[in-house]
Amino acid sequence: MREHHFSVTLPEQWGEGIVSFELGSDVDLDVRVESVHEGILVTGTADAEYTGVCGRCLVDITEPVEVEFQELFAYPGEEETDFEVQDDHVDLETLVREAAVLSLPFQPVCRPDCPGLDPKTGERLTEGTRAEEDVPIDPRWSALRQIADQGSAAESRDPENKEES
User: Fold this and answer.
1) Can you give the pTM of this predicted structure?
2) What is the end-to-end Cα distance of the chain in Å, rounded?
3) In the chain, which ranges are E strands?
């Protein structure tokens, strides 16, 4: 068994969505390589930063990500495998790239409670500018709204429901 710690500069961009690992960014790898009967077992973690834009408000974001991976690189033989030992070497690029790209968020946000953009003006909303949304009620639910309005009106008119101390 051997353990290796090293950093790799990406020769190309990894990922195609609204966030990706940029060309020239660094990926820090901690890898453990073990010889087993069937081949070489590779276990490790990759640390990197993805960049892109928030899916709600379109502001630029950069977030760290840590990915764990494990794969058996089989010795060449009759069985076909995804990863094989070639000339007593294992090529980690495909393994690490697939694990890292699959870890990218599908809908990245700058923060979990990001309000997004104003649908009318297209400007970025903040907590102070977020107005009460006056969304029209679906006509199928309007009967329930009338019942709720009648209930709240009855409570405000009925003084016997309130206890006085």
Assistant:
1) 0.67
2) 77
3) 2-9, 19-20, 26-35, 39-53, 60-74
pLDDT beyond 90 at 122: no
Interval 73-110: pLDDT, tens: 888 876 667 777 777 788 888 899 999 999 999 889 98
- Looking at the predicted structure, is the pLDDT value of residue 138 above 70? yes
Length of the chain: 165
- Closest to 8 measured CA to CA, from 24, 31, 32: 24
Q: Residue 48: exposed, middle, or buried by beta-carbon count in 10 A (0-12, 13-18, 19+)?
A: buried
Cα 16 from Cα 130, distance rounded (Å):
32
CA 162/CA 145 separation, integer angstroms? 24
Closest CA to 88 of 35, 145, 21, 143: 35
User: In whole angstroms, how large is the CA radius of gyration of the chain?
Assistant: 28
Helix (H) or strand (E) holding 93: helix 93-102
What backbone phi and psi angles, to 5 degrees, belong to 22?
-75, 155
